[in-house]
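Quick one: structure for this chain?
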Amino acid sequence: MYPPELVAPMARDLTDHGFIALKSGQEVKNLIANSDEPLLLVVNSVCGCAAANARPGAKMSLQHDKAPAELYTVFAGVDREATQVARDFMLPYPPSSPSIALFKNGKLVHMLERHHIEGKPADLIAQNLMAAYDQYC
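Got it. Here's what it folds into:
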């Protein structure tokens, strides 16, 4: 577990922009399984080399004409149960932190794993997500 004072600013980077932090596996399961609308879920991370661009990329993507109205986040290494349940919904993709998943009708329709994020500028991450929004939102 990471110290709360370490992760708080990174968590707020998303929650201050409309993402709802999920803390339990049951919350994750209920939201994904029962959502009729496109839902964006960010697996947040302390990893500076990837998460530092994942968070701004996710936020930037929401400026698009089409974007999911439901925005959620879990924090890897902090919200362990919630993160595990989220990752179960992301199968067959292996666990990845950070990662960004788009769900529609409870099904995973688009996935950005760490290797899609690491070393990429935030605007490229946003463009990738916006292309998915065009298709699924």
